[in-house]
Amino acid sequence: MPTNLKTPTFDTIDIKIIKILSDNARTSASSIATEIGMSPPSVSERIKRLTETGIIRKFTIELNPELIGYPFSAIVRIKPLPGKIHILQQRLIGLDNCIQCDKVTGEDCFIAKLVLQSIPELDDVLESIVELAQTSTAIIKKSPVHNRLPALY
User: Fold this and answer.
1) Where are the domains of the chain?
2) Half-sphere CA count of 1, side-chain side, radius 13 A
3) In this model, does residue 75 exceed pLDDT 50?
4) How does the average pLDDT of the chain come out, rounded?
5) Alpha carbon distance 113, 100 (integer Å)
6) Structural Rg of the chain based on CA atoms
7) What's the pLDDT at 5?
8) Is residue 51 scored above 60 in pLDDT?
9) Residue 146: band (very low, low, confident or very high) from pLDDT cuts 50, 70, 90
10) In this structure, which CATH number among 3.90.930.50, 3.90.850.10, 3.20.20.70, 3.30.70.920 belongs to the domain 65-139?
11) What is the phi/psi pair of residue 117, to 5°?
């Protein structure tokens, strides 16, 4: 969200709605209304407002990579070679294995999360960016914290 805009506000009812939707984005307004003691139209209106103000960016699903053929995951710290940052960014955007990439401060300009069908596949992915950057890779053994909501007050 652009920094020149006023930060949207939300209340405790909105927080309840957000938490329910974060567990299952397909929960109906009727089910949410029953759970929190409101009318379905009121819940629908709140969801619409939360979406229009950008508090809720999208409704989505979360896949289990292992069950769809990606038993390995890796975090790659990526330091672009001089003058290659824009080309590298476009290459990362185009990598099907890259499921998340953050542009960060510090020596490494990018932190990428990859899903992989095999360890040798990691070599192929890294080879595709070797002329653009230096990398440092860590294989993910376990993820004790998955994507979750920040504290909502």
Assistant:
1) 12-52, 65-139
2) 13
3) yes
4) 93
5) 5
6) 20
7) 59
8) yes
9) confident
10) 3.30.70.920
11) -85, -25
* 88 to 78, 100, 105, 123, 126: CA distances (angstroms): 9, 14, 16, 17, 12
Q: Which amino acid is at 130?
A: V
CB-based burial of residue 84 (10 Å sphere; 0-12 exposed, 13-18 middle, 19+ buried)? middle
99 within 8 A of 60, measured Cβ to Cβ: no
Question: How many Cα neighbours within 13 Å face the side chain of 127?
Answer: 5
The amino acid at residue 12 is T
Residue closest to 11 by CA, chosen among 39, 40, 53, 41? 53
Structure-block tokens of residue 6: 């006023």
- Looking at domain 12-52, its CATH architecture is Orthogonal Bundle (1.10)
Amino acid identity of residue 97, one-letter, is N
* pLDDT for the residue numbered 1: 44
